[in-house]
């Protein structure tokens, strides 16, 4: 006796701003789905109303708070042969949004997984940033706590690929300031705000300048794109220590020499300080 026919999981990209970016295929799959799992059911209703689409299937909420338990229910629907469409508030599901757990579970169960490609804040911001996009890394949201955020950025100080971050508007100024400390004040950066919406804005410049711009407050959905480290400027700890020693021999006090070398090579002062300590005590 044959087992149940597997259903299909569809990850559907939704507009990140302008509803006219919605594809005709998005409207079709929403109308035909047996189940629509939406991060925000109210936003889904608004979207389908604007698209003139009637959802005939079951609508369920699927967000960070209920993702773990709801995944099992959705997997049951899939293995029973139903088509489940997942949509988030904006952009592609599972990219810094719910979806990953269900995709992994569906693949494990042998369910067909496909996508309706749609707008992406990550790729849109990269394209508009004016920074190199041949290689990039998506870092999502930075930690909220200052110490954890500083550590994460410190780990990325030597990253040579262009980096993309999401950030909440009320934390933007603090995050940019932390980036200036970690990457150097002159690191090229683009802050993309309200992409595809009426008040779309892209501010480009050295990260320290953008700190001043953001200080008065910035509203809207934010994506930050940061240039990678210049490979020609990435020095080993031993080379950084030698640079400090050279400045000291020329009469510059150690503390100032560390600050000068950090600025010269766009690296955190802490990195230079640690390099000097390691050079004094190689056993550490």
Summarize the structure in short.
The chain is of the alpha/beta class and 284 residues long. It has helices at 24-32, 41-51, 67-79, 100-108, 121-129, 146-155, 172-183, 207-214, 237-249, 254-264, 269-280; strands at residues 8-12, 35-38, 58-61, 83-87, 112-116, 136-141, 162-167, 188-193, 201-206, 222-226.
Q: In what range is the share of β-strand residues?
A: 15-25%
| Lateral strand order in the biggest sheet | 3-2-4-1-5
**Major sheet characteristics:** 5 strands, parallel
| Subunit organisation of the chains | single chain
Uncertain runs with pLDDT below 50, 5 residues or more?
A: none
Tally the beta strands.
10
Structural class: alpha/beta
CA-atom Rg in angstroms: 24 Å
Distance between the termini: 67 Å
Strand and helix order: EHEHEHEHEHEHEHEEHEHHH
Mean pLDDT: 92
Q: What is the helix tally?
A: 11
Instruction: Choose one word for the global shape.
Output: elongated
Helix fraction bin? 40-55%
């Amino acid at each position: 006796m044959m087992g149940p026919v597997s259903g299909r999981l569809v990850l559907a990209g939704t507009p990140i701003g302008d509803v006219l970016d919605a594809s005709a295929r998005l409207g079709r799959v929403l109308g035909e789905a047996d189940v629509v799992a939406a991060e925000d059911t109210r936003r889904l209703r608004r979207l389908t109303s604007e698209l003139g689409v009637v959802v005939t299937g079951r609508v369920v909420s699927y967000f960070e708070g209920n993702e773990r338990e709801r995944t099992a229910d959705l997997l049951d629907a899939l293995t029973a042969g139903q088509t489940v469409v997942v949509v988030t508030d904006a952009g592609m599901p599972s990219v810094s949004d719910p979806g990953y757990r269900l995709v992994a579970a569906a693949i494990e169960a042998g369910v067909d997984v496909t996508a309706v490609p749609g707008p992406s804040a990550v790729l849109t911001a990269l394209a508009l940033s004016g920074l190199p996009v041949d290689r990039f890394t998506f870092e999502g949201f930075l930690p909220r706590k200052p110490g954890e955020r500083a550590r994460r950025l410190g780990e990325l100080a030597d990253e040579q690929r262009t980096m993309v971050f999401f950030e909440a508007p009320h934390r933007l100024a603090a995050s940019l300031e932390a980036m200036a400390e970690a990457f150097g004040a002159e690191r090229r950066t683009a802050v993309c705000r309200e992409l595809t919406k009426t008040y779309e804005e892209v501010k480009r410049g050295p990260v320290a300048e953008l700190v001043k711009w953001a200080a008065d407050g910035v509203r809207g959905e934010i994506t930050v794109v940061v240039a990678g480290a210049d490979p020609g400027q990435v020095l080993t700890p031993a080379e950084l220590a030698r640079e400090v020693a050279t400045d000291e021999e020329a009469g510059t006090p150690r503390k100032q020499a560390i600050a000068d070398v950090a600025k010269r090579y766009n690296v955190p002062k802490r990195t230079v300080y640690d390099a000097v300590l390691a050079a004094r005590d190689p056993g550490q």
